[in-house]
Amino acid sequence: MGMDVDSMGGMDGSDFEVVVAGAGPTGLTLACDLLRRGVRTLLVERGDRLFPGSRARELRPRTQEILDDLGVLATVRALGEPHPPLRYWTDGEPCVDRDLYEQHPGPVPRVPVWSVPQWRTQKILRTRLRELGGDVAFGVALTGLATTADGVELLLTRENRTRIVHAAYAVGTDGVRGTVRAALGIARPAQAFDERPLIVADVLADGLDRDRWHIWPGAKGGALSLCPLACADTFRLLARYEDEPARPDTSEEGVRQLIADRTHLSAADVREVQWATAFRAETGLADSYRTGRVLLAGDAAHVHSPVGGQGLDTGVQDAYNLGWKLGMVLRHGADPALLDTYESERRPAAAEAIAASTRLYRRVLLAEGEPVRWPHPVDGGYRDSRLSVDARPDPGAGAGVVPANALRAGDRAPDAPCGHARLHDLFRGPHFTLLSFGGVEPPPLVGLPVVTQRVHAEDREAHQAYARRGLFLVRPDGYVGWAGEGAAGVREYVTGLGST
Prior knowledge:
alpha/beta, FAD/NAD(P)-binding domain, D-Amino Acid Oxidase, Chain A, domain 2, Glutaredoxin, 3 domains, 6-stranded mixed sheet, 27 strands, 25% helix
């Protein structure tokens, strides 16, 4: 059972600081992150349950790090499996086997892309949400909103009953056709990069190895793929129609026949069609992520190719970026202008992810060119953000300066052994982490939740990843915010965040 909106604190506006609309992976991640920071949060979902289909199923290393920080990675990995390599079929025979992702050299990432159906990821996150004292208010639609002098006034409707809720902030994580972006009047220009329709479904099927993602690129009528999911006998189907006017049949018999027509399987090999929908592939990026005290995240802000799981990864990282900033404003007195950096950091990241997923769609589903390995995704970071301050000399400025390929402010903080633990173990939690290398004295930082760690000379891998000498302030979302050697510089950075 979900949370009953009518039982939430009398709906008098005094019990919520943030209302999150939409209980997909983005909304669930944001609600978990806010609750562990002590932010009173209400998560509402228009539907009567979590989405039951697989949709996005690929969790990249950066997203796994976030799930680790939230305390659920062990469960995710236990209930998932490594992403399978590709197997291409022609005339009923396998013709090419290829890994989709290249292995990235060096310490990043530590883990492979992990395959977990979206419904399972959501279920795991909801369990964590409930452990943190929250839950999802199902069957509750956000039907209107307006900004006030001190926050947001929201109309929440459940079974034709409407309640008015006041919150300091609201976040729309309600998907491609959500109401929050529409209510704000924020445009999200759509660009169709393939006018031919597609169908996606979850099916139970026999006759295929479950250690490969099976693709029929030259099938009559259009390419079709079946990717095994981390649950018995289930495959995720994605099929493209060659004819633009085609009207995909999403009925159980229609999906069975589609598989029989385009593969060497028979309709009888398809034992069940659990879920199916049809659509056209398009991309879109919202013109803005914020209007005053209302923000957008996930699919409400960006639309991706259906290949590659970039939408889920990008949305979860949106939530992780926004969560600590809302926590700083609401719990540590930071200037609300800090929230401006959410859009300036995450919108370019979404644009990059959209471009990458479109290329992947063309490689995998359209088989444009020879099948090749796709570069392993590595997070690009926020070097251009105003929150990224590197007080060391610029690379190439002279002898003794930071090498051009060295870690810089704005980069993802790498992992390495440190004492009896790892650096990422130290980062876990809603705090900043100040790393001290080479005997540099770490200063006390007032106004921020900070964990200080002296990294000793014997931790050679950590010194190689960071520096022989210096201070690194790691943000709560795992990026280097400030890098330098002087204690005064890091104190100025903390003051600049507007904390009290």
